[in-house]
Amino acid sequence: MADKKNFILRLDPDIYKVLEKWATDEFRSVNGQIEYLLNNAIMIAGRKQENTKNATKKK
User: Distance (Å, rounded) from C-alpha 25 to C-alpha 41?
Assistant: First the structure.
């Protein structure tokens, strides 16, 4: 499994409740749901390279 960056994220309790329910509905953890949503937002914004892992290794 790839290494992941850990950091603290503070959320409004109401937002957390919505994320928790959404994650449960899609059989994910809250952390997994947040990562999924961020990845989608990055792709939609056109900010993600095709293969980030390979691009990083080439440097």
Answer: 20
Asked if the structure places residue 58 within a domain, the reply is: no
Mean pLDDT for each consecutive 10-residue tract of the chain (59 residues)?
Answer: 89 98 98 96 90 53
Helix axes 30-44, 13-25, angle to 10 degrees: 90
Give the number of domains in the chain: 1
Distance set, CA 25 to CA 1, 21, 33 (Å):
25, 6, 10
pTM for the full predicted model: 0.75
